[in-house]
Amino acid sequence: MPLSLFLATLGSEPQVVTLALQLLAQKGVEIAEARVIHTAPRSPAIARALADLEGAFKTPPLSRYHLSFELLASPEGLPLSDITTAQEAEATFRAIFGLVRHLKQQGATIHFCVAGGRKIMALYGLAVAQLLFDGRDGLYLLVSEPDFLAERRMLLQPGDPVRLLPVPFIPWTSDAALLADILRYENPLDALRRGGELQRQMERQRKAVFCEHVLTRAEEEVVALLVREGLTNEEIGERLGRSAKTVANQLSSAYAKLADYMAWYDRRVDRHALIAWLHDYYAA
Known about the structure:
Layout: E1 4-9, H1 15-26, E2 33-38, H2 44-56, E3 66-71, H3 86-105, E4 109-113, H4 119-132, E5 138-144, H5 146-150, E6 162-166, H6 176-182, H7 188-214, H8 217-229, H9 233-240, H10 244-261, H11 271-283
Parallel strand pairs: 1-2, 1-4, 2-3, 4-5
Antiparallel strand pairs: 5-6
Helix pairs in contact: 3-4, 8-9, 8-10, 8-11, 9-10
């Protein structure tokens, strides 16, 4: 059975991790393991947070979960004490990407709370989720009153003013084969570039299907002249030996087919929309 795993970024407030995990459990999410991403414990605040977490997971209800720590490090293996430079930021991105990539290659379902630690950890967590997550995975923030967090209480009690909010994100693909292609890349920047290439290929294929199979041959001839040269209906008619009315009817049919093809039911599809959508296809 695939692993269902809780992943969390950690700063100086360990209760962010424990509260998020308990709130997930209240939602009926089954978690087998908890992994905590953190910087090197060279500051007293981080060292204390790590120690508090270790203690909390030794007693119920958290002792049911296996706890492990993921130290942020550079590609050379040097631990990151903080994230304040461009080099440290890139190393953080690589580390989070590498961890999630490894887990997804194992078939894990990931519930990722990015409420702890530096804000840049949350931003890179979102970027990695968009690249590697599928429909089973979730991304979350923890929202509470400042006074509540200041209590540093690790366990939930009824009525506590704290909520776990899902973070909306758009996975770049729902196609398992394309996601597997992205998972081949160890460097997140290479994965981003590959993702862009695949998106452009998919978009061009989608436009080719529309022009070559959805439109009739007569409609495609009219559309091609409109998009390539921006001709009027009269000019297109003269070029093709058709009346302007016939051209208008064929374009109207193309607009309706595009709206249906792209599910653009709430927007106007006219010659401007058609040109904008197909410009790069006919320019290639």
